[in-house]
Design goal:
This protein has a domain of about 170 residues. The protein starts with a helix and ends in a 5-residue tail after the last helix. The radius of gyration is 22 Å and the shape is globular. About 50% of the residues are buried. It has 16 helices and no strands. It has about 475 residues and is an all-alpha fold. The longest helix has about 55 residues. α5 packs antiparallel against α6 and α11 packs across α12. One of its GO terms (cellular component) is plasma membrane. It is a multi-pass membrane protein. This is Putative Polysaccharide biosynthesis protein. Keywords: Cell membrane, Membrane, Transmembrane, Transmembrane helix.
Length: about 475
């Protein structure tokens, strides 16, 4: 089931982060470090605005959306959703007002506020309706909602840049327009109520009780991931963060691309098993998820590290190259470690509703990341910041894994991890021994050769498991409609 669901969700999970990955390199050719800093800080803060305003209800929707067979329950939910969508726009507008200072006084204040507001509200709607589409297994709608901003915004941003020149404001407006279009196209596929009604108190109570703790947890997690951006902006200035933003963003995004290929399909399956009372099956599902997560993350991050010099020379503007080259690999490894906590051990705690422990782990991560990144800044400038964040993420994963294993019975896939590590080592050695030219052909060759080497090595270490795995996959898809 996990493999089939992962493949169905693959277009959205691949296209969206890949577009974000590419955009970080593309915008280096048009945006100055100061404009880059503004663009990245606004888009990062949108994630916090969404968490504060809508994420608690989105989490409830993903876990407890009434099935289509419950017509009355679905109607009550949709009417409550419409009312909340209107009300929860207000905190997003407040966040937009607070985010205006990222522009450092550039532009007309009202115009800046309207641009940020449009970006925050449209992206928030994409996020929420994307979670509902995911709960309903509406793959096409989910794909539209997840890709309209990153993919459509990238295309629209390139067109806007060619027509009007490059600035953070113009890019944000282009992204907002495509996000609005994505919602308009996807909403008829998943259904919605066009009328507001009095809030259903039973739904609201359940949403607060279940989504409220996740609001705190996700908010803390957001600071754990993004707090470093504001630390560097504060102690080093916007230009310093603008220089760091590219390498940091590319590294973290690469880990996100890899992890979400598996994670988006895994959590709903494990949640359904837990809700049905089948804990053993849920634990096995999480173990499988952890193995697949490692199988995708480890070679992706190692491969990126091996081709960093070629990639940076080809795709990143000269202003950003030195810093990007020095921190990209470190940022990717840190992203991999953090993704394992978020999508493996952390999911175990989420399914067991160990919200208090998740809050404590998140607070530990914030303190460790802020402290070690600050120390790193004064010891080794931007490289020190990223090293500090990597150490903090490693300590956080160690704490999360210890708690998940001892208190929840999380099953770490030791044998699978060993096999995957061996296959990744073979891939790394195969790529390393060849002197690849710093050209587009050299990059494609290194990536292709590395990928083929990894697949061959993985097949070798899993040779006894291949026949039943092939039978499982073909059995799942034979006669099955997506």
């Amino acid at each position: 089931m996990l493999i089939r669901q992962t493949i169905l969700y693959l277009p959205a999970q691949f296209l969206s982060p890949v577009a974000q990955f590419l955009s970080m390199m593309i915008w280096t050719w048009w945006l100055s470090p100061t404009e880059m800093s503004t663009f990245v800080l606004v888009t990062s803060t949108q994630e916090l605005a969404y968490m504060v305003s809508r994420s608690w209800f989105s989490f409830y929707t993903l876990r407890f959306l009434p099935p289509a067979e419950d017509a009355n329950g679905r109607r009550r939910y949709l009417e409550t959703e419409t009312t909340l969508i209107v009300l929860l726009t207000l905190p997003e507008l407040a966040a937009a007002g607070l985010s205006m200072h990222f522009f450092d006084g550039r532009g007309d204040p009202l115009t800046v506020f309207l641009i940020i507001s449009a970006y925050y509200v449209t992206r928030g709607l994409n996020n929420h309706f994307g979670e509902r589409a995911r709960a309903q297994d509406k793959i096409l709608a989910y794909t539209l909602l997840l890709t309209s901003g990153p993919v459509g915004g990238l295309v629209a941003g390139l067109l806007a840049t060619g027509a009007f020149g490059a600035s953070a404001g113009e890019l944000l407006l282009a992204y907002a327009a495509m996000q609005a279009l994505g919602t308009a196209l996807a909403l008829p596929m998943i259904g919605a109520s066009l009328r507001t009604a009095r809030l259903d108190l039973a739904i609201l109570k359940d949403a607060i009780l279940n989504g409220g703790p996740m609001l705190a947890i996700n908010g803390i997690g957001w600071f754990g991931e993004n707090g470093i951006r504001y630390v560097v902006d504060h102690i080093g200035g916007s230009a310093a963060f603008g220089l760091m933003a590219v390498g940091w963003g590319l590294g973290r995004r690469s880990a996100s691309v890899a992890s979400m290929l598996v994670a988006v399909a895994a959590f709903p399956i494990a949640a359904r098993l837990i809700n049905a009372g089948d804990r053993e099956a849920a634990l096995d599902q999480l173990k499988t998820n952890a193995a697949l997560l490692t199988a995708v993350l480890l070679p992706s991050v190692v491969g990126l590290w091996l081709v960093t010099d070629i990639l940076v020379d080809l795709a990143v503007a000269e202003t950003y190259r030195d810093v990007t080259r020095s921190i990209l690999g470190l940022a990717a490894f840190g992203g991999m470690v953090r993704a394992y906590h978020a999508h493996a051990t952390g999911q175990m705690l989420t399914l067991d509703r160990r919200y208090g422990l998740l809050v404590l782990i998140g607070l530990f991560e914030i303190a460790a990341t802020t402290g070690l990144a600050t120390v790193g800044f004064y010891m080794n400038y931007l490289v020190g910041v990223v090293v500090g964040a990597l150490v903090a993420s490693s300590l956080t994963l160690a704490l999360s894994a210890t708690i998940a294993i001892r208190l929840c019975g999380f099953r770490f896939p030791v044998a699978d991890t060993t096999r995957i590590a061996v296959a990744t080592l073979v891939m790394g050695l195969a790529v390393h021994v060849v002197d690849w030219p710093h050209t587009a052909l050299g990059l494609v060759g290194a990536v292709s050769f590395g990928g083929l080497s990894y697949v061959a090595a993985l097949a070798a270490v899993y040779y006894r498991h291949l026949p039943p795995l092939v039978g499982l996959i073909t059995g799942k898809f034979a006669g099955t409609r997506p």
